[in-house]
Amino acid sequence: MGGGGEIRRVCVVGAGAIGSLFAGHLGCIVETSVLTRREEHARALVREGLRVSGKSELHARLAASTDPAELPEPDLIIIATKTLDVEASAQRLHGHFPGAMVLTVQNGLGCEEVVHRQGDWPILSGVTFMSGTRHGDTHVEYELDTPTWLGPWAGGSASYEDAAGVAELINRSGLKAEAYPDLLPHQWSKLIFNSAVNSIAAVTDLPHVKAFARRESLSDLGHLVYAMMEEARAIAAARGVELADDPWEMNVRAVGQGSTGGDQYAHVPSMLDDVRHRRRTEIDWITGAIVREAMKAGLPAPYHETLYRLVKAKEEGWELGGG
Amino acid sequence: MGGGGEIRRVCVVGAGAIGSLFAGHLGCIVETSVLTRREEHARALVREGLRVSGKSELHARLAASTDPAELPEPDLIIIATKTLDVEASAQRLHGHFPGAMVLTVQNGLGCEEVVHRQGDWPILSGVTFMSGTRHGDTHVEYELDTPTWLGPWAGGSASYEDAAGVAELINRSGLKAEAYPDLLPHQWSKLIFNSAVNSIAAVTDLPHVKAFARRESLSDLGHLVYAMMEEARAIAAARGVELADDPWEMNVRAVGQGSTGGDQYAHVPSMLDDVRHRRRTEIDWITGAIVREAMKAGLPAPYHETLYRLVKAKEEGWELGGG
User: Fold this and answer.
1) Model confidence band, residue A319 (pLDDT cutoffs 50, 70, 90)
2) How many domains, in total, are found in chain B?
3) Which of these, B59, B65, B54, B4, lies nearest to B27 by C-alpha position?
4) Global pTM?
5) What pLDDT score was predicted for residue A320?
6) B159 plus B246 within the same structural domain
7) Number of residue pairs across A and B with CB atoms under 8 Å?
8) Which residue among A204, A305, A309 places its CB closest to the CB of B317?
9) Shared-domain flag, residues B65 and B77
10) What is the percent of chain A where pLDDT is above 70?
11) Does A200 sit within 8 Å of B322, measured CB to CB?
């Protein structure tokens, strides 16, 4: 592969908020298609296009289908589903688009490997910090215009130049992206932040509020957030990864946003949203991934094991019909 | 003090399920009064007496008031409120009944000390395993006829003979009691069991089901229950307490009850019931007590600290109006 100039066709897999943001922006500068799960979603996108409001005001014309065979051969596939759907998405892509490069933008660790098992595509790892809200199948609001970080996945054949080309394309479309030769320090920083904030929010039913950064009295929640992050930092170090950003500082910055007092900033982390709607969470790819990395490193992980098991037990309770 | 034969008058403080079971049974063999929180509760008890159904079928005539000055001078005070109300109850007793002995039957650790600060009564520590359901102010159903364990509190002047006398009285009334020279091994066994089962149920919204004893795959909850119990066992040992019963075995026995498969046995621990009704929990006296004991012993307690902070954070969420 080479630079971003060669990417003339993109296929976005999954049109939730993140997938829609990619498709809506990229669709204005290159030929873009969307592989959807639902037939009526594909039909609506073909009929109406995709509108982006908020931080961008755009309207993109797109190809869309539930069948990859009906879509034009892309140079780049962006898999933007939730982690839980990556395996099914990759299976649908099996045997298709052999000339394309794949970018994964899921939370957690391990999605690249799942994609790799279904095809010999060069793979870029991505971590996105942007956010939006779907207002329907053909309208997404662009909210947080924070960047997507990407880099070549170490287990595959993509190069830094591939990552830089894709980052250039994403930036040109009006979104933000940064390419790194080694994404792991960035991926782990976000992973560690997400693992603590999401799992704790999921079991306490508490949005990401100031309590997550408070470490005064014995019972304060910030002690737990800090301890989880330190535990994960040691695991990252043992796996050869030095963090790009300090997860504790990310936590303190986030809960300090837009609030001079009280808890007006009260972001509902995705895992808490999943729990509130009794949807299966991404815990296996986030906190569970850190537990597995600790085992590989031969390190103890009492905090991560605890939160991992608590969230899994909570999910099990729904299956029992409890609660 | 001497044997149980000298106890002619009992005052029960708090008439929830446990207090009502004591008052209903003891009221049939000795002069018994109830110190209630609500006026109408006292009036109903005086007017209608207290009915016990289920494992016992009894009807007791009782004195009752919200003011200790209106009650006859007792030889024995049984404080049967929840831990959260012990301090207020003891303050109401301050200056009254100087000739009485006090029996506390709360969960957790530390209630005896709270009572001791309000008066120079000899104090017996109690741990009760019986359970019942209040069907109103004047009717309680006796369900689990398991015993109450009691012994002299080490910080006060009660003797083993005092405990034996009270146990004899309780047994004569139709309830079950066992006296021990040193209650701590029994108190800690129940404390450790309660700390793990209650706090985990409270954050997972999972009743006490078989999952609490399962230790097969990495995510199984039994690993966490076991780790918490082992952590607490080490803290007990460092505090000079050898457990009377193995909390893990108590857990395995409890979830194995009355079920050959599935999860028909699904006891809702009191802390989960509190959480479901958004009532403040007893976490400070149970899991929090173990965290404080660990600090005194200079031992780490990552599992107990974690569950302690998670339940406290959950309570804080209600105050924020979240969830």
Assistant:
1) confident
2) 2
3) B59
4) 0.87
5) 73
6) no
7) 114
8) A204
9) yes
10) 94
11) no
Residue A168 lies in a domain: yes
Measured distance CA(B103)–CA(B74) in Å, rounded = 12
A238's CB contacts (< 8 A; 6+ apart) are A297, A298, A299
- Identify the domain containing residue A263 by its residue range: 185-317
Q: Give the ipTM of the model, two decimals please.
A: 0.86
Point out the domain boundary residue: A181, A204, A225: A181
φ/ψ (deg, to 5) at B25: -75, -50
Query: Residue A135 in 3-state DSSP?
Result: coil
Q: Which two tokens stand for residue A179?
A: 């390419």
Q: Which residues contact B280 (CB under 8 A, 6 or more apart)?
A: B84, B274, B315
Per CB-CB distance under 8 Å, the chain B contacts of A209 are 320, 322
Angle among Cα A312, B210, B275 to the nearest 5 degrees reads 65
Nearest CA in chain B to A207: B322
Please tell me the predicted confidence (pLDDT) of residue B264: 52
3-state secondary structure of A184: helix
Q: Is the dihedral of CA B56, B62, B67, B69 positive or negative?
A: negative
Q: Count of alpha carbons within 13 Å of B249, Cβ hemisphere only?
A: 5
Record: contact A310-B223, CB cut-off 8 A:
no
Residue in B211, B266, B309 nearest the CB of A313: B211
DSSP string of B217-234?
STT-HHHHHHHHHHHHHH
Chain B residues within an 8 Å CB radius of A291: 218
Helix (H, G, I), strand (E, B) or coil at A97: coil
Residue A283 lies in a domain: yes
Please state, in angstroms and rounded to a whole number, the distance separating the CA atoms of residues B311 and A311. Answer: 14
